[in-house]
Automatic annotation (TrEMBL):
Pathway: Amino-acid biosynthesis; L-lysine biosynthesis via DAP pathway; (S)-tetrahydrodipicolinate from L-aspartate: step 4/4
Residue positions of the active site: 136, 140
Function text: Catalyzes the conversion of 4-hydroxy-tetrahydrodipicolinate (HTPA) to tetrahydrodipicolinate.
Encoding gene per record: dapB
Family that this chain belongs to: Belongs to the DapB family.
Name listed for the protein in its UniProt record: 4-hydroxy-tetrahydrodipicolinate reductase
MF terms in GO: 4-hydroxy-tetrahydrodipicolinate reductase
Domain Dihydrodipicolinate reductase N-terminal: start-end pairs: 6-109
Amino acid sequence: MAERLPVAVLGANGRMGSEAVTAVTAAPDMELVAALGRGDSLQSALDAGARAIVDLTVPDATEANVQFAVENGLHAVVGTTGWTAERLARLEALLAQRPGIGVLIAPNFALGSVLASAFAAKASRYFESVEIVELHHPQKVDAPSGTAVRTAQLIGAARAEAGVGPSPDATETQLDGARGAVVDGVHVHAVRLRGLVAHQEVLLGGPGEQLTIRHDSFDRASFMPGVLLGLRRVADHPGLTVGLDGYLDLGL
């Protein structure tokens, strides 16, 4: 029998973290060696023999957690938001000093969501207009969601490469926020509503037609196959990877 991967979950007491604990425990090729909550020492993950961590903590803690992991030779799979361009640059510089260590930072671990974002970016080359609506539970602390930002960035890059101009918009006056945030030229609208988990629509429009690409997560268990995939592949992708699509052969 192949050796099981020793994994430590950070943020184990949170909604996502508790799901990750369950998923790693059930995975036949992994061993949960540490489940750390707020205030627990990261050293205990090392002492337990972890070779990879899953960081599902909070934006204020995630950079230090990942830095600790990299400096101590642990691979990291990260679902925590708050990774600005400056933070990513610091992490890349650190990883350059630790060849062989892999870090995956994924705005979304739901495989369907990752695929939907990739499909939307591909389709956006062929439509005059594109906007994003993301819908989440009211406990979500950031807006727009990391998934929506990532989707907008992929769409913006795809449209720029194809030479597609900005979506037409004749708005001259508006209340603040009425047209949403603008990420890489794409309008992004955030909804926070009781009863939702995580949902996103990409609306694409052209003369006489509309294409809607929608993904729905009804339970946080939907994110766990992506977390496990990340853990299984992170060692094969040294350096920094942003987006689970970097581990998938999408052929787009």
